[in-house]
Amino acid sequence: MSTLRMAAVAAPFGRDVEGGFARIEKLVAEARTGGVQLLALPEAALGGYLANLDGGADGPPAFAPDSPEIRRLAEIAGDVVVTAGYCELDGAVRYNSAVCVSGDGVLGRHRKVHQPLSEDASYGAGRAFEAFDTPVGRLGMMICYDKAFPESARALALDGAQIVVCMSAWPSARTSPAENLAQDRWKHRFDLFDRARALENQIVWLSANQSGSFGDLRFVASAKVVGPGGEVLADTGVAPGTAVAELDVEQALATARRAMAHLADRRPDVYAVGVA
């Protein structure tokens, strides 16, 4: 048996890229000291998210996929596998993207597919969910609203992902937000999606999120690690922090799938057209 120590972060990241890198360096150093091998940072960790979702917000700085900033992130990661969100520039199009790196370089990439409210005014849309191999196992990535769609996680699980990392800038409700953030209905949805996506695909799930406030948005934090039975193994709640859990991933997946294997027991021949 080989256990994997993994962690998901809830932390604030804004437009100050240098300040963001300083925070990332600290988080990675703490993770390394604590024996963490996989560290998930939030959506838009490099340069922050949009100030609002009304379509007119100034966007974050954009970086090319092979930019010095991405190389710097890989250098900071070193022997830790790190995932982080950023604004990607490809030609004239900006994408809400995520990258997985280690000291060896880029291990995987993802462009956010599903765009809530008016996010499409600022970003192009991704077109795929693809798993990839890393030193800590086969991973898949998604960003925020992607997790509201069961097909996203299912596509990654069918592509062999053992662990899915979802990086978010998930805010509290836009209308009638709860005074107590822990009671907010959008936080409730955030938590339900995390557990449901893990359970229905019998995978390990890491959920990182922004914390604090930025522009008009107040983020729900709630970073967590979820096991393949939908059980929450570690959770920051609505405060900034790092949720850390240790698990033998292969054994946990095998145990979860021993009696009822949700992927193997699928009946795609009877599903509606377009449902994978």
TrEMBL record:
CDD domains xref list: nitrilase
Q: Name one GO molecular function term.
A: hydrolase activity
Whether RNA-binding counts among this entry's keywords is no
Concerning Pfam families, the annotation shows: CN_hydrolase (PF00795)
- What residues does the CN hydrolase domain cover? 4-249
Superkingdom to which the source organism belongs: Bacteria
The alphabetical list of record keywords is: Hydrolase
Q: What is this protein called?
A: Carbon-nitrogen hydrolase family protein
Q: Which organism is it from?
A: Amycolatopsis ultiminotia
